[in-house]
Design brief:
The chain is of the alpha/beta class. Its main location: cytoplasm.
Length: 347
């Protein structure tokens, strides 16, 4: 039963990550990407753009940190010295010409980093984050229908400014509450090191700022013996369905150098299927022939084995009506060491 469940889980969850990255059926209107200094979100955003171009999806990048328009982006919106209202107007204007010629074209909006907007002192104190995000994916007119998906990147290592009101939740709480999918990125080499420590019942190591060492920003990790090139990024996905049930899964996205930009087949795999993370168990061919060690011999000689096979047990004879057992009576031959007891015989 276990292999069937594993196969079903693999098929279902690989189809889910393919829908999310390829923006099919608007599986996730708002995706929150949590990255860190150890594993930036740049490779994942490039994968979003690559798949969007293959599917002919209009890509808009709202740049808070990016200075130059990346390849494959249709509209590049710089946020330098712009208010949130100006950003929304420019994002809406960038799609109007496309919507006029092809109203059914899907749209992908990427925010390379939401932290500068959340920590900006120029933002109006009445700035409402949910309204800002909703206005980006909302259609410009009530009659228009646009399948838009918003991907927001949040840097976990950037400290937050104190809240103006003690009763308002922090921005990360709002983002995780609003998001329909939450993707947390991890370094593959760090995940392997932590799993190796857990397999030995040791405390998993920490890296970067979590080490709490002065001057350490990025954790350095030597290559583990036997792991080869631990390349790629680990994706921890939490997807929330409309029914309320959630899906939790870990994936591995290989580096872009291993496939061409026009590659159509799915490249993301489950982390459990990776041989470095979950190596196959090697079975010793001679393990089944070994006997437990003891102070006496447990095996049988050839003579003892032949004598054991020649013994006819009473219940075999009782199964035949024509045998000496007469169909059910158990026969017993007294030996020299047996003594006859009338009382036991009567019982």
């Amino acid at each position: 039963m276990a292999p069937i469940n594993l196969s079903h889980r693999r098929t279902h969850n690989l189809l889910l990550i393919s829908k999310l990255l390829s923006l099919r059926d608007t599986a996730s209107p708002l995706t929150l990407v949590l990255d860190s200094l150890e594993q930036p979100a740049t490779p994942l955003l490039k994968e979003y753009i690559r798949r969007a171009k293959l599917s002919k999806v209009h890509v808009t990048l709202i740049a808070f940190e990016t200075l130059k328009q990346p390849e494959g982006v249709d509209a590049f919106v710089s946020t330098r010295r712009k208010s949130p209202a100006d950003i929304v107007k420019e994002v809406s204007a960038a799609y109007q010409s496309v919507a006029a010629s092809n109203p059914s074209r899907r749209r992908l909006i990427l925010i390379d980093s939401i932290n500068p907007l959340l920590n900006s002192k120029r933002v109006d104190p009445g700035f409402h984050l949910p309204s800002f995000l909703g206005s980006l994916i909302a259609p410009s007119s009530p009659s228009a229908k646009v399948d838009a998906s918003l991907v927001v990147t949040y840097h976990q290592d950037v400290p937050e400014l104190p809240q103006q009101s003690p009763y308002s939740p922090p921005p990360i709480s709002l983002l995780t509450y609003l998001a329909t999918s939450i993707i947390t990125l991890h370094s593959f080499s760090h995940v392997l090191a932590q799993k190796a420590a857990r397999d030995r019942s040791l405390a998993p190591p920490v890296f970067g700022l979590e080490e709490e060492q002065e001057g350490v920003l990025l954790g350095r990790l030597d290559r583990l013996a036997g792991t080869g090139k631990a390349e790629g990024i680990v994706i921890e996905l939490e997807h929330r369905r409309k029914s309320g049930r959630g899906v939790l899964e870990w994936y591995l996205l290989p580096p872009a150098s291993r496939y061409s930009p026009q590659h159509l087949k799915e490249i993301v795999t489950l982390l459990d299927d990776n041989v470095l993370y979950n190596p196959p168990m090697e079975r010793d061919p001679g393990a089944g022939d070994e006997e437990p060690t003891s102070t006496f011999e447990l095996g049988l000689t050839d003579r003892q084995r032949r004598e054991r096979e020649g013994v006819v047990l009473p219940y075999f004879d009782a199964q035949h009506n024509d045998g000496p057992g007469e169909g059910g009576r158990i026969l017993y031959d007294m030996g020299e060491e047996d003594d006859f007891d009338e009382e036991e015989d009567e019982i």
